[in-house]
Amino acid sequence: MYETTYHRASSVDEAVSLLGKAEDGKFLAGGMTLIATMKQRLAAPSDLVDLRHIDAMKGISVNGRSVRIGAGTCHYDVASSAELRAVCPALCDLASHIGDPHVRHMGTIGGSVANNDPAADYPSAVLALNMTVITNKREIAADDFFKGLFETALEEDEIITAFSFEAPEKAAYAKFANPASRYAMAGVFVAKNGGDVRVAVTGAGSDGVFRHAGMEQALASHWSADAVAGIHVDAEDMLSDLHGTSEYRAHLVKVMAKRAVAAAG
Amino acid sequence: MTKVTLTVNGRKMSGECADRTLLSTFIRENLGLTGTHVGCDTTQCGVCVVHMDGKSVKSCTILAAQANGSEITTIEGLSKGDELHPVQAAFKEHHGLQCGFCTPGMVMAATDIIRRHGGNLDEKTVRAELEGNLCRCTGYHNIVKAVLAANAEMYGAKQAAE
């Protein structure tokens, strides 16, 4: 790892001010991606501004079916929240399969979504649950947030502070994990609210997380795994690498979508 | 340079290190506690697992500066003098190790699994929860047996005390 200077912020405002003074600083959430990336010398920020001690960014609150999750909430806390499980178990299940238990104690929902790794799990939930991404500057609709591989609508000094959404009637996430890394080779999050169906795919798309309009329409008119079976998933839009060809991923997307719909009930 | 102060195994310990120093390096080289191992150094193998503020973490993927002010438990902090922690005793009893390199991380992971599940453990859960710890010798079978035995021992003891 190249040299860096560590700063610990106790508030969002302090974090922004610390980053403003840095030559080439980065916000540090749980660090489960950023520290690993710095060790490989693929990132070399001059300064790190640690957000992990900002208490205002942590915690889950559920009011009726309205959910708010602080961006600094770790995967373990999302996975084990009884309050959240009562209204949206799909999100708990997704969080419970990220990395391993030790990673889940450090990694946060905000860090994962801000990084927007094309194989990360959370971006599919943000998109399918139509979450509002709340930052220190504004509120961003999920559909406007993700801008391609590792790209988001976030500005350099913008911090995600929380996520909010209305829990849907039905939702589930199914992923085909890479057998070694456990990252999603295809992960599909489905959510149904009355006639409104959202299907978001992670791990497979060559441009990162995306919604599949064909599946959404088919499921809106008939909510069943069979409804997905006839839908075409274009291999042209899929990633292709040593773990799987684009044709294989296109097939996986359909299989995961069917599994997710079946699991959602 | 940063001055890092940690409460390690109940004792306050400090050291100076560069900001980029990993917690695993700090524990091993500054504090001289070499029971915490470094294997893959890429967050995968889990031999570096310690408990930070009561939760298992991979110390090779945390900066010492990030941990500053926290309470750390390492493998050296589990036993009471000569009396092994129940998880350590179970690993010995059930031969949950061969070369022993992964064992500190396995034991720290296992104590965390048992803490989180409060006695409610079955084989499937243990195997799933050992996701972040690799052993290249045992095939995991005796490790899983040891974790279940320790869980029964600790949970049984807890029930008897209540």
Oligomeric form: heterodimer
Total number of helices of chain A: 12
Query: What order do the strands of the largest sheet of chain A run in, or round the barrel if closed?
Result: 4-5-8-6-7
Instruction: State the order of secondary-structure elements of chain A, H for helix, E for strand.
Output: EHEHEEEHHHHHHEEHEEEEEHHH
What is the CATH class of the largest domain in chain A?
Answer: Alpha Beta
Number of DSSP E strands of chain B = 5
Q: Tell me what the CATH architecture of the largest domain in chain B is.
A: Roll
Backbone structural class of chain B: alpha+beta
Coarse morphology of chain A: globular
Low-confidence stretches of chain B: none
By CATH, the topology of the largest domain in chain A is Uridine Diphospho-n-acetylenolpyruvylglucosamine Reductase, domain 3
How is the main sheet of chain A built?
5 strands, antiparallel
Radius of gyration of chain A, whole Å: 18 Å
Count of spatially separate domains of chain A: 3
Q: Helix share of residues of chain B? A: 25-40%
Query: In one word, what is the shape of chain B?
Result: globular
Termini gap of chain B: 48 Å
Number of strands of chain A: 12
User: Topology as H/E string of chain B?
Assistant: EEHEEHEHHHH
- End-to-end span of chain A in angstroms? 47 Å
Strand fraction of chain A: 15-25%
